[in-house]
């Protein structure tokens, strides 16, 4: 096995995860994998923060419903640290659409299939080292 650099990623427990009391279950999966929680805060995200966070999706048909959903209740922002945690957390999260996510993943095991919208998929995880740095700066600036 080759050594890999320790990375940090930004995880969000989205409003559906908070409303369904799944914060603990999601954190337990992150910690069980061996990742360290290095920062954690529950807050309500405003439109400005979400516009920056989802800048790559501005103009897409699902952008406004996504932002409305993400500001509909508290989210938990988490910085997790570990070897290959960026890729590793995305594997733990599973496919974007919970109806396609594999069993064993957060979205596959806990995501619901009750005609919910794709945006209600419980968690966000940064998709690259560049995104992780940018997103951690957005959510935890000045901390
Ligand atoms: P990811 O969260 O799996 O990385 P992205 O493609 O970055 O997925 O999309 C960001 C978020 O936007 C998704 O988690 C989901 O909440 C929402 N989203 C993505 N595609 C759609 C769609 O086709 N319809 C509705 N919401 C979507």
Structure commentary:
- With 143 residues, this protein is of the alpha+beta class.
- It has one domain (6-139): Alpha-Beta Plaits (2-Layer Sandwich), CATH 3.30.70.
- It contains 7 helices and 4 strands; from the N terminus they run βααβααβααβα.
- It has helices at residues 15-19, 23-32, 47-53, 63-70, 85-93, 106-110, 129-139, and strands spanning 6-13, 36-43, 75-83, 123-125.
- The protein has a 4-stranded antiparallel sheet with strand order 2-3-1-4, sandwiched between helices.
- The radius of gyration is 14 Å and the shape is globular.
- The model has no long low-confidence stretch (mean pLDDT 94).
- Bound molecules: inosine-5'-diphosphate.
- Residues 62, 66, 96, 117-119, 121, 124, 127 line the site of inosine-5'-diphosphate (IDP).
**Distinct ligand kinds:** inosine-5'-diphosphate
Per CATH, which architecture? 2-Layer Sandwich
Order of helices and strands: EHHEHHEHHEH
How many separate structural domains? Answer: 1
Indicate the percent of residues in helices: 25-40%
Please state the structural category: alpha+beta
The CATH topology:
Alpha-Beta Plaits
Number of helices: 7
**Broad CATH class:** Alpha Beta
Q: Report the major sheet.
A: 4 strands, antiparallel
Strand order of the largest sheet: 2-3-1-4
What is the residue-averaged pLDDT?
94
- Please report the distance between the alpha carbons of the first and last residues: 35 Å
The oligomeric state is single chain
Molecular shape: globular
- The CATH H-level superfamily is Nucleoside diphosphate kinase-like domain
Beta content: 15-25%
Radius of gyration: 14 Å
Q: How many beta-strand segments?
A: 4
Q: What are the segments in which pLDDT stays under 50 over at least 5 consecutive residues?
A: none
Domain Nucleoside diphosphate kinase-like: 6-143
Subunit structure: Homotetramer.
Cofactor: Mg(2+)
Function: Major role in the synthesis of nucleoside triphosphates other than ATP. The ATP gamma phosphate is transferred to the NDP beta phosphate via a ping-pong mechanism, using a phosphorylated active-site intermediate.
């Amino acid at each position: 096995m080759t050594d890999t650099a320790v990375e940090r990623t930004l995880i969000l427990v989205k409003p559906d995860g908070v409303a369904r009391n799944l914060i603990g279950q999601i954190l337990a999966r992150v910690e069980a994998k061996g990742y360290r929680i290095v920062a954690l805060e529950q807050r309500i995200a405003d439109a400005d923060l979400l516009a920056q966070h989802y800048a790559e999706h501005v103009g897409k048909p699902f952008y406004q419903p996504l932002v409305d959903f993400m500001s509909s209740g508290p989210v938990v922002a988490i910085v997790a640290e570990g070897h290959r945690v960026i890729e590793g957390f995305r594997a733990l999260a599973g496919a974007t659409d919970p109806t396609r996510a594999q069993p064993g993943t957060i979205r596959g095991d806990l995501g619901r299939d009750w005609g919910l919208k794709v945006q209600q998929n419980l968690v966000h995880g940064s998709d690259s080292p560049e995104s992780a740095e940018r997103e951690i700066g957005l959510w935890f600036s000045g901390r």
